[in-house]
Amino acid sequence: MERIPSKDYGKNKAEKFKDENEVYLPSELSRLVSADSIQKNVKNYPEMIRDLTEIQKERVDKIKNILTKIPLIHTSSNEQIAKGVSDIIPLDELPNDHRGHSYKSDRSLGLTKYVFLNWGMSDRGHCYGKFVSKFSTNLLDDERTIVTPMDIGQIVLADEYSFDELELEKKQRIEDYYFKYIVSGKAWKEIIARRVLKELEAGKHFFLLNSSYSLGEIKHYGSVDAKNFIGSFPVSDLRENFRFLYEHGFAFDNVETEGVENRKRIYEQCKIDYKKASGFWKNKLKL
Question: What is the pTM of this model?
Answer without folding.
Answer: 0.89
